Amino acid sequence: MRLVKVVALAAILSGCSDAPAEAPSSAPRRTGPTVEAKVLTIRESSHPPTRAFLSPIVVWGSKVRIGADLDHWRLFDLEAETVTWVDDIAGTYRTVRVSDLVSRRQRQLRAAVPGGIPLLEGGPTGREVQVEGMAAEQWLMKLGGYEREVWLTKEPLAGEGFFRMWLVSEPINEAYAGVLRNVEGALMRQDGFPVYERSAFAWEGGEMVSRRRLVSIATRQVSASLFEIPAEYRDVTPPALRSDGGRRSSS
């Protein structure tokens, strides 16, 4: 029973989630002037039950947008080194410096692990494959019956520094973040792009699996407003974290 709890915990920390039914692969649409952007389409899936969806990462210059819909999305400013979370329903946004996100994640990873739970261990295996003409290196991590596999390119497809910004802006279970201490700490020092990820663990006599895979890289004309925060939106950034960088996108 304890092993099952440990394995389930590791899966939660590594990003297993319920996903909606699969949606069409496309960048979010808005009207207005367009710009030429790189669109990386990611397919995320999990089973059982079998669920999947397609999520675009849209790159234009030093700006990167994650979010397939117009409700909640993130805007990464690689030049200003900020991440902005946007809530289109509430009409609000908050911008946090990457340095603050990194410091917070490091504190979370250093926290004591309750109940004597072991740490997730692993790292690069030395295996490489070619993906879209790029070399990708395998990272393999294990904890009991749980296994996580990541194939990481050496090329930063979404820009220098994006991978670290993406990692530290993802949610984490703070109470058990220490389980990921060694592995996530090592991944935070990388600057490639994860072209394939797989997490699997034993569950009720079977196996629960989640995957995230890069399925296409394309150049498309997209609305420049995708990288802009509407002027009427309210800044809800906590006062201690306020930064002038990255609140508004400019050409």
Describe the structure concisely for a colleague.
By secondary structure, the protein is α+β, with helices and mostly antiparallel strands. It has helices at about 1-15, 100-110, 160-170, 180-185, and strands spanning about 35-45, 50-60, 65, 70-75, 80-85, 90-95, 120-130, 135-145, 145-155, 195-205, 205-225, 235.
Task: Give an account of the 3D structure.
- Strand 2 (51-60) and strand 3 form a beta hairpin.
- The radius of gyration is 18 Å and the shape is globular.
- It has one domain (2-241).
- The protein has helices at 2-13, 98-110, 162-169, 181-187; strands at residues 34-47, 51-60, 63-66, 72-77, 82-87, 92-97, 121-131, 134-143, 146-153, 193-203, 206-223, 234-235.
- The longest helix has 13 residues, at 98-110.
- With 251 residues, it is an alpha+beta fold.
- The chain has four helices and twelve strands.
- Residues 1-8, 10-25 and 245-251 have low confidence and may be disordered.
Rounded to the nearest angstrom, the radius of gyration is: 18 Å
Helix residue percentage: 10-25%
Which structural class fits the helix and strand makeup? alpha+beta
What is the total domain count? 1
Mean pLDDT: 85
Side by side, the strands of the main sheet go: 7-8-9-10-11-1-2-3-4-5-6-12
Strand share of the residues?
A: 35-45%
Give the beta-strand count.
12
Shape: globular
How far apart are the first and last residues' alpha carbons, in Å?
A: 55 Å
> Regarding quaternary structure, how should these chains be classified?
single chain
Number of helices in the DSSP assignment = 4
Main β sheet profile: 12 strands, mixed
Order of helices and strands: HEEEEEEHEEEHHEEE
Low-confidence stretches: 1-8, 10-25, 245-251
